[in-house]
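call fold target=Cell wall protein YJL171C/Tos1 C-terminal domain-containing protein
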Amino acid sequence: MASTVANSKEIVWGNSLSYLNADGNGGSSSAQILKDVSIPSNTEFSIFSAERCGNSCGFSRASDVAYKGFEGANKIFLFHFKMPLDGDRGFNGDMPALWALNGRIPRTAQARTGSTGL
């Protein structure tokens, strides 16, 4: 699986994608499988299929890390994970969440800000 992390915030377009290292604490030059680690509060990562987008995914801000989502009318995702408190009491602290988004959202602009008003 290709795993990526949203770690670069731009003024207008929001977070962009890059590769996450296996320890979940920094970048990588290639896709990595995440080790059995705890991800701290207010930290996000995305999981995509191992199939690169090419021209089939439409626009992507970061084409070198653009992978396809999980296609098909029927699918099932099974997760086994823990959401321990990490002691962070700041903005978004100790608020674990799991989102299932259309693959186009993280490849374009999940959380745009700035003059666009979106």
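return ok
The radius of gyration is 15 Å. The first strand starts at residue 2 and ends at 10.
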